[in-house]
Amino acid sequence: MMRTPLRPLARILEARQKGENPDVIERENRHLRHEQMRDKSRMRAEGRLLVLGVMFFCAFGVIGARMGTIAASEPAEPRATATGASIVASRADIVDRRGRVLATNMDTHSLYAHPQQMIEPERTAKELARIFPDMDEADMARRFADPKKKFMWVRKKLSPEQMQEVHDIGEPGLLFGPREMRLYPNGAIASHILGGAGFGREGVHSAEVIGTAGIEKFYDESLRDPAREGAPLELALDLTVQAAAEEVLFAGMKLMNAKGAASVLMDVQTGEIVSIVSLPDFDPNDRPSPLTKGDASDSPLFNRAIQGVYELGSTFKIFTAAQAMELGLVNPNTIIDTRPPFKVGGHKIGEFANHNYGEISVAEIIIKSSNRGTGKMALAIGKARQQDFLKRLGMFEPTPAEIVEASGGKPLLPKRWTDLSAVTISYGHGISTSPLHLAAGYAAIANGGIAVKPTLLKRSGPQDGARVMSESVAAASRLMLRKVVTEGTASFGEVPGYHVGGKTGTADKPKEKGGGYYKDKVIATFATIFPAHDPKYVLVVTLDEPVETSGTKPRRTAGWTAVPVAAEMIGRIAPLLGLRPEFITGQLEGVVRISQ
Amino acid sequence: MRSLLFLLSALAVIGTGYWAYHENYRTQDELDRVDALRRDIGEARERLAILRAEWAYLNRPDRLRDLAEMNYSRLGLMPLRPDQFGVVRDVIFPIPEPVIQITEPVDVTSAGAPQP
């Protein structure tokens, strides 16, 4: 770069000759040089600013463009992330306690139509009516011809064969959408527990599967939760036992000419419901619609074991006896006078078929099923203590079983708990509970006095419930129950090797419109524990309006109806539960020794 | 010296560029493979679910009961009853097999035998 001197000699000399100040020249040159320097640095600064501006513009431009593309494009899963388990979007399976499938999903297709794309609407309607005989050809043809219709559903679920046939029609206006449907492979088995499922919000490409009843509805949210990652819901039910119980109970119901039946099989320690049956039942794959008129309990959808509350009769007597023993009022050998008359609140308390048992012990009251005997014990116990005991056994609240219908099974209690109520409730009249309530109560006696809450879910250990009676009282009660079978009203209940103990109950059905009881309609119940010397399970069998007609007179008592059915069930079920029959141990003498 | 430095850095830029593109394509290929595998897993899972449902359907207690009844003459299957439990005491001890005295050993090799 050329550097001009501040004091160029030629100009200085010239200025000196003219007598001018040479410093002016220097100042001028200095000034020029400064201007040059200023221009240069400004240029440089402007250049830098420009570069910076361009850089910022580019950076913001890139960010903006990226934002634009992200906002405008279809969302996609990140491809490079290492996911362990992929998201399982389908509803979780329901399995039994041994992992066998009770409810699962199946991929299928739905059929819908775009009428404006149809080429031969009449022929399509005709062909569809041939494939689906329940569809009306004329109605379909009319709807296909409607120019305003752009879209219509034809069928929500198709079998693969039907889909192929529809495909073979070759109509471009018929379209398929993928669907996931709920499948209950075992048909009607455990239908009341599983409930059923239907479609919620529906689109062409998918549809929500939602539970409509039973455990499917109770755990709907949790079954649909993708965070489950498809882990199945494990129930306490055992499919084999459930199937055997349903078969035997159905045969028993037919044999005893009953209109309905229910049974509950429960583990006495854990409260797990291993089998629960309500007949008549239904197929959850094709759930019938609820009754719109008449009695809801006549519908096969009605769960008699959990929803149905009945007066379960003399099966309640053991609770009265157990409480009286627990309070120290009596022991099994205390003699109570059961002779008439026994009047409470102006009402005479009678016995079955007007028997007079005389002066008998507490054990005999249970064995012979004396109403007056338990009534007197109830009066000794008192109303408040009786209510408290039954409340602790769970007889005042709906059962906590995990199905939506369970909340409907609220026990019916007297509005005013009078002395008369106390007496009638002591033998199971005037209080209506579900068979499941009764099973829970018997489980407390069977497991040595711990109240259990029935559950439909598989559990790993025994329940840590509150103690309602002492071990010795529970053992004495079990001995009485065993004697009911060996020498009392349930003589048909003996199953060799299983030492069944139990109590029968026959209650007249109350008239629906009030005003007394039917003379010829009963609820026959047999509540059992087995094996009585070391109870593992409690089984409650209830028959609705049974009548046994092999004798000269029709017989309706539980001893002739529910007991043989229960015995047959135990004979079938106990081996399946892995209980080995014992012929040596557990005889009555052995049980006596334990109770002393 | 300086031009050599320029040349080297230019070559380095070309080299790293090539390497970056190469790695990028390899990653894309791997991702495609992962996608394909994931799709296969999904299909396999779907198939598994259907097979499981079919297994459960074919093993439903009603069907097994009907089959057992239909084939009663051949199989003689009956529901399990309490009297079918056995006691270990009832099982007879195995009778010891008589020990065969081998006096004249025979060569039993198949070497050289014709193929069936």
TrEMBL record, chain A:
Domain Penicillin-binding protein dimerisation: 87-224
Keywords of this entry: Carboxypeptidase, Glycosyltransferase, Hydrolase, Membrane, Protease, Transferase, Transmembrane, Transmembrane helix
InterPro entries associated with the record: Beta-lactam/transpept, Beta-lactam/transpept-like, PBP_dimer, PBP_dimer_sf, PCN-bd_Tpept
One MF term in the entry's GO annotations: carboxypeptidase activity
EC number from the UniProt entry: 2.4.1.129
GO BP annotation list: cell wall organization
Principal EC category: transferase
Protein's name in the database: Peptidoglycan synthase FtsI
Organism encoding this protein: Pelagimonas varians
TrEMBL record, chain B:
UniProt-recorded name of the protein: Cell division protein FtsL
Taxonomy of the source species: Bacteria, Pseudomonadati, Pseudomonadota, Alphaproteobacteria, Rhodobacterales
